[in-house]
Design a protein that fits this description.
Helices cover 38% and strands 12% of the residues. The protein is α/β, with parallel strands linked by helices and 398 residues long. The chain has 2 domains: 222 residues, Type I PLP-dependent aspartate aminotransferase-like (Major domain) (Aspartate Aminotransferase, domain 2), CATH 3.40.640.10; 120 residues, Aspartate Aminotransferase, domain 1 (Alpha-Beta Complex), CATH 3.90.1150. The strands form 3 sheets. Strands 1-9-8-5-4-2-3 form a 7-stranded mixed beta sheet, sandwiched between helices. Helix 5 links the parallel strand 2 and strand 3. The structure holds pyridoxal-5'-phosphate.
Length: 398
């Protein structure tokens, strides 16, 4: 039997008509950028998350850049984050000229260890960027309390956690800004790149919205005022007389980005969003079967009871990682190794000066973690086969 690590075709086949219908409607409208499809998707996601504003953007990486920029992170600043995440988390920080400061993770949920955050705070620290890795929410009470004490912004990386809950609140609604990715393999996946920023803060929403479209027009002018804390001379009525400023499209007030969500991606996502709860519930069933069926020779996830993960990944730990992955492959079971190199040891961050051994927990976890197939359309037979194969490995090969 072959069990793929992930098969996104199955989902498309099941809701093909809904998706194709929505894509066709966008093509017929010829409104490819912005417009009612994007707005409707934003409205529905805001409702789903329980936030006032949800703004589509080009991808999850750019969502992080927009959020950091809007929260005032810039050259010379420091942002505290986890080393156990996809590269984009720290790349977004570095791309603004700031330095990622890595804090070791907790052994039980693979998330940033809040108890080690305070010792890394310096006068340059501007924000904390927790990542709800594999869909398991971080200890947000502790993180937001520290942030409040030191007047830091909290930006949540929710690329893997759409629908996850922390004490009955959705991730992405717990900090200043929540950043989402709709990369095709995510729990809510587009047919290309896509992302979103979510916030309850009206001012941040204006700034985020302006930054994603070149800091232009009225929103750009208003965002400039909010970022600089004073009235923008450019928006004064009499200023239009010079011909240099005007609250319309080709007048720019901030150096922003082109990072919009396009309407075809929004159409796909609108078709999938009503199924998200059901998809996450199906993932939870797969995880429950693994929790029960897998032998105790692998270390299984042990999440706190006040969190509800969306099970983006199901990760086990074993010192026999390489041998287990090879055995799974020999027997037709796909597996993943997220993440083999913790970010503080990535060559791209050599300049930050972290040495091997400096963050011991993440280094051990990275050398032992194996991701097993988990997606809503996995069949019971496939789930049983994964369990049997993992368990057989420990009988035959260890
Ligand atoms: C934790 C995390 N952060 C950020 C990103 C970046 O998202 P995107 O690929 O949409 O730019 C990803 C996506 O892979 C991710 O998993």
């Amino acid at each position: 039997m072959n069990v793929p690590f992930l098969d996104i075709r199955r989902q498309y086949q099941m809701i093909k008509e809904e998706i194709d219908g929505r894509i066709t409607a966008v093509m017929e409208s010829c409104t490819f950028i912005g417009g009612s499809t994007v707005q409707e998707f934003e409205r529905q996601v805001a409702e789903f998350l329980g936030v006032k504003h949800a703004l589509g953007c080009s991808d999850g990486t750019q969502a992080l850049v927009l959020a950091l920029h809007a929260c005032g992170v810039g050259p010379g600043d420091e942002v505290i984050t986890t080393p156990f995440t996809f590269f984009a988390t720290a790349e977004a920080i570095a791309s603004l000229g700031a330095a990622p400061v890595f804090v070791d993770i907790r052994e039980d949920n693979y998330n940033i260890d809040p108890e080690q955050i305070e010792e890394k705070i310096t006068p340059k620290t501007k924000a904390i960027l927790p990542v709800h890795i594999f869909g398991a929410p971080c200890d947000m009470d502790r993180i937001t309390a520290i942030a409040h004490q030191y007047k830091l912004s909290v930006i949540e990386d929710c690329a893997q956690s759409i629908g996850s809950q922390y004490k009955n609140k959705k991730t992405g609604s717990l900090g200043a800004v929540g950043c989402f990715s709709f990369y095709p393999t995510k729990n809510l996946g587009a047919f290309g790149d896509g992302g979103m920023v979510a916030t309850d803060d009206d001012k941040l929403a204006v700034i985020l919205s302006a930054l994603r479209e070149h800091g232009a027009a009225q929103k750009g002018a208003r965002a400039w005022e909010l970022m600089n804390g004073r009235k923008n001379v450019c928006t004064a009525h009499n200023d239009t007389a010079t011909g240099l400023y005007n609250p319309y499209k080709y007048y720019n007030y901030l150096i922003g980005y082109n990072s919009r969500l396009d309407a075809i991606q929004a159409a796909v996502l609108l078709a999938k969003l009503p199924h998200l709860e059901e998809y996450n519930a199906a993932r939870t069933k797969v995880a429950a079967a693994y929790q029960e069926g897998l032998c105790d020779q692998v270390v299984k996830p042990a999440y706190a009871t006040h969190i509800t993960p969306c099970w983006h990944q199901y990760v086990v730990k074993t010192p026999h990682k390489e041998k287990l992955c090879a055995y799974l492959q020999e027997n037709g079971v796909g597996s993943g190794t997220f993440y083999p190199v913790p970010l503080h040891l990535q060559k791209a961050f050599l300049g930050l000066g972290y040495a091997p051994g400096s963050l011991p927990v993440v280094e051990r976890v990275a050398s032992q973690s194996v991701c097993l197939p988990i997606f809503p359309e996995l069949t019971e037979k496939e789930i049983s086969y994964v369990i049997e194969t993992v368990n057989r490995f420990f009988v035959e090969r260890v």
